[in-house]
Amino acid sequence: MRVGIMTSGGDCPGLNAVIRGAVLNGIKSHDQEYLGFLDGWRGLLQGEFMNLERSMVRGISKQGGTILGTSRTHPFDHPEGGVDGVAAALDRHQLDGLVAIGGEGTLAGAKRLADAGLPIVGVPKTIDNDLGGTDYTFGFDTAVQTGTEAIDRLRTTGESHHRCMVAEVMGRHAGWIALHTGMAAGAHAVLIPEQKVTMAQIAEWVGDAEDRGRAPLVVVAEGFVPEDAEEVHTPLGLDRHGRKRLGGIGDRLAPLIEDMTGIETRCTTLGHIQRGGTPTAFDRVLATRMGMGAADMVADGDWGRMVALTGTDIHRVPLEAALESLKTVPQHRYDEAALLFG
Amino acid sequence: MRVGIMTSGGDCPGLNAVIRGAVLNGIKSHDQEYLGFLDGWRGLLQGEFMNLERSMVRGISKQGGTILGTSRTHPFDHPEGGVDGVAAALDRHQLDGLVAIGGEGTLAGAKRLADAGLPIVGVPKTIDNDLGGTDYTFGFDTAVQTGTEAIDRLRTTGESHHRCMVAEVMGRHAGWIALHTGMAAGAHAVLIPEQKVTMAQIAEWVGDAEDRGRAPLVVVAEGFVPEDAEEVHTPLGLDRHGRKRLGGIGDRLAPLIEDMTGIETRCTTLGHIQRGGTPTAFDRVLATRMGMGAADMVADGDWGRMVALTGTDIHRVPLEAALESLKTVPQHRYDEAALLFG
Amino acid sequence: MRVGIMTSGGDCPGLNAVIRGAVLNGIKSHDQEYLGFLDGWRGLLQGEFMNLERSMVRGISKQGGTILGTSRTHPFDHPEGGVDGVAAALDRHQLDGLVAIGGEGTLAGAKRLADAGLPIVGVPKTIDNDLGGTDYTFGFDTAVQTGTEAIDRLRTTGESHHRCMVAEVMGRHAGWIALHTGMAAGAHAVLIPEQKVTMAQIAEWVGDAEDRGRAPLVVVAEGFVPEDAEEVHTPLGLDRHGRKRLGGIGDRLAPLIEDMTGIETRCTTLGHIQRGGTPTAFDRVLATRMGMGAADMVADGDWGRMVALTGTDIHRVPLEAALESLKTVPQHRYDEAALLFG
Amino acid sequence: MRVGIMTSGGDCPGLNAVIRGAVLNGIKSHDQEYLGFLDGWRGLLQGEFMNLERSMVRGISKQGGTILGTSRTHPFDHPEGGVDGVAAALDRHQLDGLVAIGGEGTLAGAKRLADAGLPIVGVPKTIDNDLGGTDYTFGFDTAVQTGTEAIDRLRTTGESHHRCMVAEVMGRHAGWIALHTGMAAGAHAVLIPEQKVTMAQIAEWVGDAEDRGRAPLVVVAEGFVPEDAEEVHTPLGLDRHGRKRLGGIGDRLAPLIEDMTGIETRCTTLGHIQRGGTPTAFDRVLATRMGMGAADMVADGDWGRMVALTGTDIHRVPLEAALESLKTVPQHRYDEAALLFG
């Protein structure tokens, strides 16, 4: 049985553990043979791949990133893509199945292809933990751990200088990383896209913490927007390529907080360090198990579904489960965290 | 409302986060006032405590160990203990409730006391993750992460010297730490108390790994006993090569593996480094939420129960849930891991 | 003997180890008694301090920041400052000596005060390692280690996405952090204030690395200015408080590198995480020894001098040694590192 | 110019950085070509090697261990060894020079070979930092950092259980690792081979720490022997309390300390985790610079010498410098550390 595997979209700690888990389980349990396509769908459609013998996945589960490379190529936007294009690629490589490791876009593409009869299984990947159908996605725990360690460092500077520290973490549409990082780091305010909060409320939390002699810590997700404060929305200007020129929400909030509270405030944007590097043990185990589960799904010809975690069990759910809606932070989880603010 | 709180049994990363979570939520949501008893039941029965004002729990969730201290005192073995003794102590301190953070012994004691009508709630604590009723206990993730990082270091020595490395991790009665650490570290064999394995099988796994050019890695739980190999059970002394025979199972296995495979083998016993130090973000979040949940239970007078994690939710279960049977590694989880051995 | 001690200027990992070293050695070897002034010179001049009994410095050498707090107050700018003001403060607190832990400004102030006959000794502090008279200053090793770990994480993202990663590290006037972090992380280009480099040269290094199939890594010190590229100098706009609004050199270089090489380029500014948090063992040992040395200097009445590291020895040098010139990266050290670029 | 390179003796963090530094500098500055011999002298004498093209050393400076493997083979004990054997091997591989990375045995062998006219340069390697002629050897800083992090974890257990913790670190003949780890971790006693200390003195330090409410921490080098206490030397077996008596000095000291002080005492032997894994940034920089320096020595035909660190400079010293005497901890360094004991 010949199986293709690829990683698509933003990189995420644990991708290599998924690849290793699938390849080892495929070889040892199902006599499968793996082709690793390079840079996601692009490699599949353009025929770029590496043969994943067992020795190729040796010791990679502790490596961040993906040995296959990744890209944001979408199977339906690519000139040689679409159902026919992907079907042709699978034929060309005599593949009996394809393991697509990726986020919303990849899984949506995988669903359309599977619905059209192509032998595809999915592995959900998002560092933001905002895909439905699974309790957690791999990479999230590493992002939270890395962010928490970085913020532990920021705090000592805040305390020594009696400053308010703002830490911007990842999370465009969902605040899971901010919620867990903030709770782990003991933040006095956590700001996430799901929750509208006024600048006055933020200033109150910051002020209350300072009144108790603390150096206020604010953890903000990149996708947060305050309910008011027009100033926050004023564009900082795009560069000539239309790329956002610097200045995430954290950099914009810091001077506002300083103005409103009179407390010297500094922002650090953690950025890419949250999504790279050695995965935590939690993510290595989760990703390895998901990869092994994907190889089993292929062996069973259980197409159009993906692996998922429920409690401590790896099982299978329809791809729809990940797609029907973004998994955002529910109100009760934010309320729980908010009890510790201020 | 006056509430007592204490930590009992072996220390565990996350204990301070539980204390902080309970105290902050208790103060802010329920107008509770906390007395922290020193060294577990001993402090309660002998009247040694500290008043846990908010400032006392400041920034402690990132600290390992417990600010209250701990001991193995059992409430029914202590001269001033038993139902009457504990009831008297609760009266003496005018306590409306008690939060008992501990393992099997403490929760069993708490159940007997609650059954006798005393206002007690529990928080399950075991670094071994072997208590029922909850998906995970805090401290386990830290132990696995610390063990995995240590074994990542051992591997480079094994590979440079073409040695087999044996790493002994904690786990007297359940192999959860060994299972997760071994899977995360890419072990060629994981040996746990739940599974009888012959020395021949171990030697085969080690030999297979070496045949593929790997430096074999064996992760063994302290409670593992091989199915055969009387020699392993022989009293301490020198082995037949005059090498000193050490105490733990890992130290005993190493020379046997070396004899059977001809591969130079060394053991490292990780010991106490697995149970101390800064908790992972995962454990800080889990422990904080459990502490907050315990304060809510006290506010509700929901005695005789404990907080537990199911999936991503903190909820409440009867104390029996933790006690009816040891939560050991199920066969399918070991079989899953074993696919990666050799 | 009553001794004052204070920490001034930017915080730095190791400050608490200096305080602990001075207090413990002072108490045990010299029967000294320590007053810790709060927020640097401000606390001395305004009479805010804490008595540093032995218990106050318990276990603090592993804590980042400074338990005394810090500020940028300069002894000659403060209304109650100047030689007379400081002399009066020393009298008021009946101090026989003062240990001033700080950077260039503090040591220059300390020299003027010592020249005027006041009993002051110095401990050199700069995370940038740019003070003369000593091989290393504490905090530098921690900044390099933290930066290197962060960049190790960035690399996996660069490699998975075939991107050029730019990492901006600290170093306004000297490139030591960039030089060591870049060499430790295997950077393909290191850009420091001491060295004028053209955009064309930077693009060549980046292009060469990519030609060899690498994901180019550029480590740039915040104080670097390219020899050309006017665009880099165009102001990104100041906010209404005249604070630099976002956009360090790294954020400005990234789009230029992308334009010149056609390689997708992203910047991460490590910022404050480099100067906070638990010090490395190297810095704990160095800082502890410097603190102990300062207590000995006070006992000897060896005023107007500071502790310094030469090779592995802690000894004493005149304060001038730190002040005569900024310790920048010498040409031969940059040339050595540059052999590994591209 | 064809150059051989090899790593011999115990593995050490930084070996790969030395190899990378030598190969990159050799290729880029001196048009050298490198053959990497496997498992030290054995590979050279038996003709096992890999060609070290630039791509072979890509990204290895952050990897622990050695990509070349190592062994304890001595060039004068090996049947095909000796001056003639090594000379023949150099001829056979048409080598113009050899870089020998190793400890005392390897450098002594290198000296005899160089004295006999063979083109050999040395790179000093010992995790124990006990080679003369250089301020530090690479690997030492990593061992101290890893040991300090592990002991930071042990402390929380000691404090929670009011126990004395004994940590055994490496150091057969010299106590550098124990001295620096102990000072960094805030040990109440540091025991090293260079210093005879009585059990009574150890018990006094431990007791004093406990009297001040601390959980005593003892850091002992594996080579330490108490001045008295015959019992420590008694063969393995059970102590008088029937507790199993383990192998290392730490395991033997713990019950003695407990007997003499009445304080519950536990030992953890850090073992191999100190010598493996990712090197610290300090060691990566030091090892890279030493490797680069070795390539320069080969280019200059500067045989019979080795690279060394003095202050912040890499320079060259005769091999004798490393061999004339073991670099042990001088009395003043122990006295300095001892001021913090108890």
Write a concise keyword list for the protein shown above.
alpha/beta; 342 residues; 12 helices; elongated; Rossmann fold; homotetramer
Write a structural description.
Chains A, B, C, D: GO terms for molecular function: 6-phosphofructokinase activity; AMP binding; ATP binding; diphosphate-fructose-6-phosphate 1-phosphotransferase activity; fructose-6-phosphate binding; identical protein binding; metal ion binding; monosaccharide binding. Chains A, B, C, D: It holds the Pfam family PFK. Chains A, B, C, D: Its main location: cytoplasm. Chains A, B, C, D: InterPro entries: ATP_PFK, ATP_PFK_prok-type, Phosphofructokinase_CS, Phosphofructokinase_dom, Phosphofructokinase_III, PKF_sf. The structure is a homotetramer. Chain A is of the alpha/beta class and about 350 residues long. Chain A folds into 2 domains: about 1-140 and about 280-320, Rossmann fold (3-Layer(aba) Sandwich); about 140-275, Phosphofructokinase domain (Rossmann fold). Helix content of chain A is about 40%, strand content about 15%. The first copy, chain A, has 12 helices and 11 strands. The first copy, chain A, has helices spanning about 15-30, 40-45, 80-90, 105-115, 140-160, 175-185, 200-210, 230-235, 250-260, 280-300, 320-325, 330-340, and strands at about 1-5, 35, 50, 95-100, 120-125, 165-170, 190, 215-220, 265-270, 305-310, 315-320. In chain A, the strands form 3 sheets. Chain A has a 5-stranded mixed β-sheet, with helices on both faces. Chain A has a 4-stranded parallel β-sheet with strand order 7-8-6-9, with helices on both faces. In chain A, β4 (about 95-100), α4 (about 105-115) and β5 (about 120-125) form a beta-alpha-beta unit. In chain A, α1 (about 15-30) crosses α10 (about 280-300), α5 packs across α6 and α7 packs across α9. The longest helix of chain A has 22 residues, at about 140-160. Chains in contact: A-B, A-C, B-D, C-D.
